[in-house]
Protein 1
Amino acid sequence: LSILKSIYKTAHNKDFEKDYLCSSVNDKKQFRVCLEKDLEEWQNLIIRKNCDNKNLYYETIREKKAKYDFEGSVITTNYTNFAEKITGLKTAYLHGKLDWFEDINSKEIKLLSDFSDEAEIMPFLFIPSGVKPVISLKQIEQYKIALEAFTQSDLLCILGYSINSDDEHIQNFIRERLNQKRRVLFFLYSGDKDFTYMKNDYCAMFGNSQYLEIKKIEKSQDFRTGLENALKAF
C-alpha cells in the first residue's frame, strides 16, 4: 500500500486513500481490474512526465542502446516497470513486480484480473530478507534472465543499487562473474567522505578483483560519460 500511495502521489499529486480508494467501485472483481489498469497508467504517466529529462539514468541507457545497438537486459530488485518501459530491454524482476499477485492457496502467480472473485490473493513482492524462497516457475524464469546476463554479458553495469546482507544471492552471482574473469562496472553515487569507504567495502566483498571497476558519480552526467567510455571499449 505504501508503494501504491507513493506512485499515485507522484503521478497525480493527490492522496491515494482519499482520492482513489474512496471513489473506487465496491465490487471486488471490478476493483481488481481497475487497479491493474490504473497501476499501469500511473507508471506510464510518471514516465511521460520525466522521460524528456536527460538526467534520467534509464533514459541514458536507452540513448546509448540506440547509438551502439547492443543486446542486453536489466536485472532489478525494484517492483515498478520503469526500467523495462524506458530502456526497452528485457527485464528480470528478481524480487517481484507490482502487478503480480499470488493465490494464497494454489500459489499461482498471475495478474490481478486473472483471478476469480473468490480467490484469496496477496502481492507477489519479496521484502528485504536473507531468505528468498522459490515457490513459482515465474521466479525461475526471472532468475534465468538474470543468470544469462550475469554469466554471458560482455559488461555488467551496476547502478543505483546497494548490496547488503539481505542480497547474498546477488553478491554470489557477481562473485561468480568475477571468477570467470568478466568485467563488472559499479557506478557509486556518493559524496567525497563516503566514496573511499564504500569502494573499499565493495573491494573487500568481492576480493578486490582486477575485473571490478568502481566509478564515482555525483550527477547524471558522470554516469553518461562513464557508460559512454565503457561502451566505446567494445
Protein 2
Amino acid sequence: MIKLPTDHNIPAAKIAAMYIGAVIGAGFASGQEIMQFFVMHGEKAVPEVLMVTGLFCYLGTSILLVSIKFGATDYSVLVNGLLGTKVSIILDVLAMLMLLGGLSIMLSGSAAVFDEYFGLTPWLGIGLVLAVNCLVLYGGLQGVLYINVLLVPVKVTIIIAISLLVIWMNEPCGSAGVSCRPTAGQVPDHWALAGIVYVSYNMILVTAVLSTLGQSINKKDAVLGGMLGGLGLGLTAWSLVAAGLSRYP
C-alpha cells in the first residue's frame, strides 16, 4: 500500500488534475453533456461557459478550504461538519448512487468498445476497467493522484485537439446557412439555470473526491489548485462549446 501524504505536500498542479479528473467523464468527453447544457442554447452558451467557469473556480476552492478546516479525509466528515448528521445521510445516499451510476457507465462503455471496435468479448473490457480501478484504489490517495496526473493532460489535450479540428474543418456558426438560433430540447430551457444545474450535480462527485485532501494540502495550494482546476474545466468546456457552435444546429 502506498503511504498517504501527511505533511501537506500535495502541489497545486496535482490538486487541479484531481479536480478536473473528477468532472471530465464520459458525458463531458463525448460532448453529450456540453451539447445538452450549453450548445443547445446557441449564442447564450458563451456567457454560460463564463459563469460555469467562475462557479467551478469558486466552489472547488471553497471545498478544499473547508476540507482543510475540518481536517477531512472523506466527504462524510465535510458534510457532517457543514450540515449535520441527518442531512449528511441523504447526501451520502445520493453520492453513492451517482458513484455507482458512473461506474456502471464506465463498465458498459468499456464493454461496448471491446465488442464494437475490437470484436472481443465485452467481459474483457469490463474486467480490464475493474482491474485498473482496483489497482488505483489499492494505491489509496496517491494512486488516485497518480492516475489523474497521468490521464487528465491526455484527456484535455485530445478534447481540445478534436474540437479545434472540428472548427477548422467546418463552416463557422452564422455562415453558409448555418443557424445560431437555439432549438427546443435543451435541459433546462434557460442558459443560466442550465449552468447552475450542470455545476451543482457535478459538485456532488467533486466533493467526494476533493474532500479526501483535507489533511494533505495547505491553503495556498488549495486556492491555486482550485482556481487552476476551475479554469482548466472552463477552457476544456469552451473548446467543446466552440466546436459545437461551429456546426450548430
Protein 3
Amino acid sequence: MLKLALAALALLAPPLSAAEKPELVIYTYDSFTSEWGPGPQIAKNFEAVCDCTVKFVGAGDGAALLARLKLEGARSPADIVLGLDTNLTAAARATGLFAPHGIEAPKLDLPIAWDDDTFLPYDWGYFAFVYDKTRMPDPPKSFPDLIASKASVVILDPRSSTPGLGLLLWVKDAYGDKAPEIWKGLAPHVVTVAPGWDEGYGLFLHGEADMALAYTTSPAYHLIAENDPNKGAAIFDEGQYMQVEVAAMTATSDQPELARDFLRFMLTDGFQGVIPTTNWMYPAHTPAGGLPKGYETLPHVTKPLLLSPDDAQAMREPALAEWLAAFSR
C-alpha cells in the first residue's frame, strides 16, 4: 500500500519548476538584453528546446564585458560571454578564462575565412557614420572630408565600447602614423564621447549631432521599423572597418554541455533569424528565409578593413594613447 501511495504521489507531482531547471548565464551588452534587442526572443527560442532557463546579464557595452570577466576571474557565474569582437579575442584568449567550443560550425556567410576553436561568430557589419539625408544631402566621403566640414559627430569610448574600439582601429588601420593628425582634426567636431551605444546613438536621434558612429546596417532599422528612408550611412574612400561579433563559453562554466548546446543553437535559424531585425547586423549564417526586405537598399562596401586579432591587440594601446592625447586638450 505504501508503494502504491508513493507512486500515486509521483504521478501527481508537478514538472520541474523554472528554479529547478538548469540555468545558463550569458554575459552580454545592454542593448542585446533590452526589450527591443534580440535577447528576449532568443532566450524564448532556446528555452523551447533546452528545458532550461536562460539568464542574460547586461554588462555595459561590448568592451566592458571582458573587463568584468577579468575582474571576476574564476568566480564568475557566466557560462557564456556574447558580444566580444575580433578586436578583443586575442586579449580574451590570453586570460585563460575561455574554453574551446568543440563545435563543427555550419558554413558561415562572412566576408572573411573563419577558423577559431574558442570564439564563434554570430553577426557582422561595417562601421560607418550615420546621418539624416534631409539635413545632410552631401555627406562627407572620407575622414579628411569630415574634418573639413562643419558636421558635429558623436563617437563612443574605445575603452568601454566595441564600436568605439572599432573606430579607433579604423583610423589607425587606414592612416597608420598619420592617425594622430586625424584625431586632432576630428576632435573639434565631437559633441561627446559616449560610454556606450545606447547613449551615443540616442544623442544623434535627438538632434544633438549631425552624425553618429554606427553601422552601414543601421539605416535598415529606420527603414523597416520606422518606415523612415531618410537615414544614410556615409561610405568613406579609406574603406569601412569591419566588426565580427563573437561568443564563447567560459572555462569555469558549471553547465559546459548546455553552453555548447547554446553555441550550436546560435548558428541556427532560431538565433540567426532574430539578428537582422533586432541587432540590425548581418547574420553569420544566413537564415532560410534570407535577409529582410530593406536590407537590399543598404550601401555596398567595396573596401573592407579588418586587422587580425593579434594585430588589433598589438595596435590597441598605441592607438589609444594617440586618441587620449587628442581628446585631453
